[in-house]
């Protein structure tokens, strides 16, 4: 079950729903609310779904942004305060229901699809095609000089490298730095704790040699960085996928086809580019979403 720490945020979520969309939710079957987290990625994707649904049906779609976390978004879905959202497969390891430990992308997605359907009545569509997960990241020039494509490629030079990383990851035994060292057999010469928001500029400015970043962050493009492939699958997969309530699908079966249109269409580089347009170029999420849909032929 969802942990109690989400309760206060959820109350604010519910209040926001009724203040912003008083005619929405379960009281109006021709209106759908898509809830999003606080960052640009799910906001852009929500706008894509809004545009495609309203273009192809008579449904009205509202986007409720800036819910505190994916946990809050999920609970709002369960409570029918929102009807649709973008979630990430690795969430299954946050104790929503019994799962088997796994790091295979397909099997983790299957557990997410089956578990959220069985326990919460939520339908997961096939993923968009990208993960938003941890990624060891270096400057492009460092990657080129040392022929770095995978994390394993770092092993011969790791002792001479400084790692900039979020403090909590350094300390977590089961899925942090101690476990990483055992899994890859790699120990960096120095570790420098810092806020995750600072790692991109730190590595770009040569304050550190390598950082643990997020794989779809637009600052990877802004600072000319390169993320290394997790070739030994240390990090759990976090494939993004659209999720909708089963009762909404039952009332509007036409959404099955519409919600599947983006499956496999957005790779990690494309998502970085879209996030870059919003976060770095300060463009409107809806406009960025609309341009992309027109570019790939999903909107006239």
Structural write-up:
By secondary structure, this protein is α/β, with parallel strands linked by helices. The protein has 2 domains: 4-131 and 237-295, D-Maltodextrin-Binding Protein, domain 2, CATH 3.40.190.10; 134-227, 3-Layer(aba) Sandwich (D-Maltodextrin-Binding Protein, domain 2), CATH 3.40.190. The protein has helices spanning 7-20, 40-56, 70-78, 105-120, 140-146, 167-171, 177-184, 199-204, 219-222, 246-251, 255-259, 268-279, 285-295; strands spanning 31-35, 60-64, 84-88, 122-124, 134-139, 162-165, 190-193, 210-214, 225-227, 240-245. A 5-stranded mixed β-sheet has the order 2-1-3-10-4, sandwiched between helices. The chain has a 5-stranded mixed β-sheet with strand order 7-6-8-5-9. Helix 2 (40-56) links the parallel strand 1 (31-35) and strand 2. Helix 1 (7-20) crosses helix 3 (70-78). The N and C termini lie far apart (42 Å).
The count of DSSP E runs of length 2 or more, i.e. the number of strands, is 10
The largest sheet is: 5 strands, mixed
DSSP helix fraction: 40-55%
- Counting helices, strands and paired strands, the structural category is alpha/beta
Mean pLDDT score: 92
- CATH homologous superfamily annotation of the largest domain: Periplasmic binding protein-like II
Radius of gyration over all CA atoms, rounded: 20 Å
As residue ranges, the low-confidence spans are: 1-14, 16-20, 22-27
GO molecular function, one term: transmembrane transporter activity
Protein name: Glycine/betaine ABC transporter substrate-binding protein
